[in-house]
Every structure is written in structure tokens, then in C-alpha cells.
Amino acid sequence: MSQFDTLTLWTVIIGLAIGSFTLRFAFLALMGDRAMPGWLMRHLRYTAVAIIPALVTPLVVWPSSTDGVTSLPHLLAAMAALSVGLFSKNVIAAMISGAVTLYGLLYLIG
Amino acid sequence: MPFTTTKSAFWMGFRDSAPFILVAGPFGMLFGVLAAEAGLNVLEALAFSMAVFAGASQFTALQLMQEQAPTIIVLISALAVNLRMAMYSASLTPYLGAAPLWQRALAAYFVVDQSYTLSIVKFENEPKMTVPQRMAYFAGTNGIIAPLWMTATVIGAFVGAQVPDSWGLDFVLPLAFLAMIGPMLRTPAHLAACFTAIVTALLAAGLPYNFGLIVAGLTGMIVGAQTELWLERRKALREVTR
């Protein structure tokens, strides 16, 4: 696995600590009990469900363990994790389904 | 059930958060394991969990650092994943906004998916709660989760240092993300945002500096917001014509 240097790591940790706290505190500190503008709330609602799939998709389609060659076990494992999570609302069940699918298929197909 | 004391409110929050042990424990450990695999020592992994205290954001940063993405892209992406915390903070403000500033600052650090979800439901259902009782309930929801997240990270980091590379743990992180995303997709607008982000991420994958991630994330957000608007308008129109 590729490494990164200590300076990068601590820049990221400290930057994220300050940034995350600011995001969490901004409205509790400043807004009082005024309502937030609707358009802003509307976009904030979709950040996680947009950014996370955008991050994961390339990793699923071009997995690093196959040097970027699209692989059926990885695709099916990803679909299992997503669909079990979607329908059961259970994160752990989704995670286990994905892992079992991946390692099962890798074992069968080789 | 009405509260009599702030103390009972704290313990109510404490008990209500119990089911989330099953999520925070394994995922905290997973972060520790993957952090160790990425070359972080136990102290660095713990510092990460304590300083940031936001699972999805920590996983995002870890993944992008391993891809050697520019630091600014790492920060923007991981903070974008955390933008929902701003929304949580905004929606808690009418209930907790009257508390002293130091309490609000302390509470802000502990705003996570679990504490927010439990608290907002409680506050909406029990409008008679006083501000100190609400604060106590909110603190209670973190009584287990926060220490557990840190402890699990440490255990995971110790375990991860022993795991050989041949186990192929590199695909565990994408699976963890997908498992987290499923339950978040509650409405058609969420699905639209997710689907758009996936397609855009594929089309924009060739952009340098992981910039495709930002483009795909923004496109997904806008499509999600527009779908929500469109669905609301359609619903309103139907009610008018009825």
C-alpha cells in the first residue's frame, strides 16, 4: 500500500479537526434560533449521498488489488453491500453481505 | 415518558444510544485496522479519531491520502462529506440555541449521525423538555458512542498492524462506504443524487488531482436538491388540482 509522509498526515488531521468543528459549531454559535435559508439546507441534505458514491465508484469499477482491471467479484460484492444496506437499513448486515460475496467469489473463481 | 430531572434525561439518552454500539464498535475498529494498514501508528490513528470524530470523513481522508491526492483535495472532500454536520447543527439550534456558549461549543464537537438522529426525534416528540434536559439527553447519547469510537480505533490499530497485506483489505473500505450509503438513501431525491454522482464519477474519472470527485459530488448534490424541489412542486400541484 502506498505511503504518505507525516507532514501530510498531520496537516489533514488538524485541518479536518478545525474544519469539522467549524461546520458543527457554526450554526449553534451564530444563528441563534433563526431559520436557515431553504436552498442551503436542500443542498446540504445531499452532500453525503453524493460525495461518498463519487469516491467509491472508481474504486469499485477499477479495483486497486487487480491493478485497475474491472472484476466481477468486486462489482457483485459492491452491489450486495449497497442493496442489502438499502433494503435492510442495517449497516453491519450490508458490510457482511459485501465481504462474504467478495471472498466467496474470489475463492470460487480464483 | 416525562422527565423529572436532567440526570434522568442523561441516562435516557445513554440507554437510547445502546443499539448504535453495534455500529460504532466495528466501524471504529475498521478505521483503526485500515489506518494501521495505511502506515499510521496507534497514536496517529487515535489522534485522528479524537480530533475529527466523524467516521465517513475519516475514511474519505484515509482513502484519498493513499491515492496520493493533493492535500487540498483530501481536505475539501473529507469536509464535504461532513457538510451534513452543518445541517444537523442548524436543525438542533432551535432546541439547544439558548444553552450557554461553552455548552454549545462542547455539544458541537459531539454532533454525529447517532447523537443527532436520536436527539432530534426526542426533542420533536417532547416539546416540554427544558434546555438543560435537552442538553443532558444529547450528552447521554454520546456517553457510550464517543469513548467506544476512540477505544475501538486503538484496538483496531493494534490488530491492523498484525494483519498481513495478503488478506486484501483494500476493498474493505469501499464496501464499508457502500454499507453506510444504503440506509442513507431514504427518498427518490437521495437516490437521484447518488445515481448522478456515480455516473458523473465514471465520466470524470480522467480529470487530474482527483478533481472528478469534486465535480461528481457537486453534480450529485445539485441533482438531489433539484429533484426534491421538483417532487415538492408536483405534490403541491396535485393538491391544488384535486
Which chain pair has the greatest contact?
Answer: A-B, 74 and 99 residues
The major pleated sheet of chain A works out as: none
- Poorly predicted segments of chain B: none
Q: What letter string, H or E per element, gives the SSE order of chain B? A: HHHHHHHHHHHH
Q: Can I get a quick summary?
A:
Chain A has 5 helices and no strands.
How would you describe this structure to a colleague?
The complex is a heterodimer of chains A (about 110) and B (about 240). Chain A is mainly alpha-helical. Helix content of chain A is about 75%, strand content about 0%. In chain A, helix 4 runs antiparallel to helix 5. Chain B is an all-alpha fold. In chain B, helix 2 packs parallel to helix 4, helix 4 (about 55-65) packs antiparallel against helix 5 and helix 8 (about 115-125) packs antiparallel against helix 9. The longest helix of chain B is centred in the C-terminal third of the chain and has 31 residues, at about 210-240. Classes of the chains: A mainly alpha (about 110), B mainly alpha (about 240). Chains A and B meet through helix 1, helix 2, helix 3, helix 4 and helix 5 of A and helix 2, helix 3, helix 4, helix 5 and helix 6 of B.
